Amino acid sequence: MARLDDDMLVCRCEEVTVGEIREAIAQGAFDVVGVKRRTRAGMGLCQGRTCEKLVQQIISQELGVGPHETGSSSVRPPVRPISYGALAEGEF
Amino acid sequence: MKSYDVIVIGGGMMGTASAYYLTQEGMKVCLIERDDIAFGTVSHTDGYIGASEKEPGVDSMQGMASMKLYDEMRKTFDYDFEYSTNENGDPIGFVYFCESEFEMEMAKKQVAENQKLGIEQYMVSVQELRELEPNCATDLLGGMWVPKDAAVCPFKVPFAFVQEARKTGLLDVMTRTEVVDIIQDPNTKAVQGVVTDKGETINAPNIVNACGCWAPFIGAMVGMEIPIEPRFGQLTITEKAGKITQNRLCMEYGYFLTKFFHDGEGERPIPDLVKAYNVCLNITSDLTGNTVIGGCRLFRGFSIKSEYKIMQACAMRGIRFFPMVKDLNCIRAFGGIRPFCLDQLPIVSDVEEVPGFFMAAGHEGDGITLGPITGKLISQYVTGKPLEFELAHEIAWSRFKNKDIAALKAKEEANTRALQEIERKILARL
Ligand SMILES: Cc1cc2nc3c(=O)[nH]c(=O)nc-3n(C[C@H](O)[C@H](O)[C@H](O)COP(=O)(O)OP(=O)(O)OC[C@H]3O[C@@H](n4cnc5c(N)ncnc54)[C@H](O)[C@@H]3O)c2cc1C
Description:
Number of strands of chain B: 19
Radius of gyration of chain A: 15 Å
Structural class of chain B: alpha/beta
Low-confidence stretches of chain B: none
Largest sheet of chain B: 8 strands, mixed
Mean pLDDT of chain B: 94
Number of strands of chain A: 3
Largest interface: A-B, 23 and 35 residues
CATH class of the domain at 1-82 and 150-227 and 342-395 in chain B: Alpha Beta
Bound molecules: flavin-adenine dinucleotide
CATH superfamily of chain A: BFD-like [2Fe-2S]-binding domain
CATH topology of chain A: Arc Repressor Mutant, subunit A
Number of helices of chain A: 4
Oligomer: heterodimer
Strand content of chain A: 5-15%
CATH superfamily of the domain at 1-82 and 150-227 and 342-395 in chain B: FAD/NAD(P)-binding domain
Shape of chain B: globular
Largest sheet of chain A: 2 strands, antiparallel
Helix content of chain B: 25-40%
CATH class of chain A: Mainly Alpha
């Protein structure tokens, strides 16, 4: 696969580029969670639903490991956004 | 065979801070972490740093000492750990809300004690409270205002320490490596090195135990019984919705009632659900527009799984103090475990019985604040330099020689049983 351009936007919610993800990997990140903590990629509204695959691909290219060895973000509640009013009423 | 001046076990707040300050003293350091840097509690936490959310005395003074070091770090570090200020470039400041006369009395006492220690902290009237935080509830009695307390991005601080320490050329980082044993001289008990899960032996005459909630497992390797237990906390995050709080941290005074075990303390006027999960409100809107709403304090083992019932109690508390929270969306919840030391102070020192072994763990809900002072003290213990904190003996391992650990443990267990009883009753009613 062609090498992605450093300026390309990976995470739109938090505006993280390919270059920033490569830098995080150079500093020691070896999985999706490590990249997320160092760059915020995947921390926005969509919680990585859009960019996670691309992040896995970049890690796999940079470190020469299979995409399945790059981990994935932990799934956390709520399943989809829910209002605090509804939460307080126990509607979950 | 590899050898170093110091091996630091644990790549969280305490481990990376220790590694950083040790390299500044010219020590050759190996930092060993079983997963990634910032894998543990330090990435499941808030990032408030301050002297005011502690007990007046040694606790608040170590906070003050650490805040001074944070101030140096934000001026000298190239790595941005997001020391957050308000729009004027000042620290965000903390506000505490009192909802009963009892809490007002407690707050007044605390303000007087901390002022004596040199911590800037004031009582504020309801009017002043509403000026500071226009969105807060209208039926509060008053509160406390701490202008100098601040916030950082918690998991960026360890990355910053590592990157800054690397500049010295004295730091090796081994991630995805677990320490499974410690080698000691059979006669003197002095430490000589560690064994990793890969079967490798690494040598060093000094070893720092910076494993947070897991510090007791490392301690057991050298025959120590370390009284640290995981204390669960949980937070929720809103969608980006602008300023609910004026970027500062807002807490209910009840924070102190859920954090410390004191006898005969007043009860908060709260729903049973809030009581059962020992929830107290902390809420802050950051400059990016998200608001964090938490939190709870519970003993339930090492699990960090979020629970809907706790999210519900946090939501109730959020709406009670900031009614507009009701209409916000929650996008995520997460949990973490605080390394709770049974006498409610961290353990930072050498260990007389095990020469060359050092403790940097047990910071409960204050580890983000206390990372820098802990790392600095460890570097001074290892190099034998004068200690920078005059009350260092009060947080030293040696204090346990004259402490009744069993009594402390009994108190914690009684507290947990009482909460479980309330939880059982609530669940029975549903
Ligand atoms: C919900 C919540 C909110 C909080 N809010 C705040 C706050 O606002 N302000 C504040 O100051 N504090 C706060 N805290 C407390 C703070 O997060 C902790 O005190 C701090 O993170 C502890 O850091 P640590 O380095 O001791 O532990 P950790 O960050 O857990 O680091 C320990 C490391 O040791 C590693 N390790 C364990 N065993 C081994 C082994 N055998 N070999 C190699 N590595 C090992 C672990 O993987 C881990 O990375 C909060 C905590 C929680 C849970």
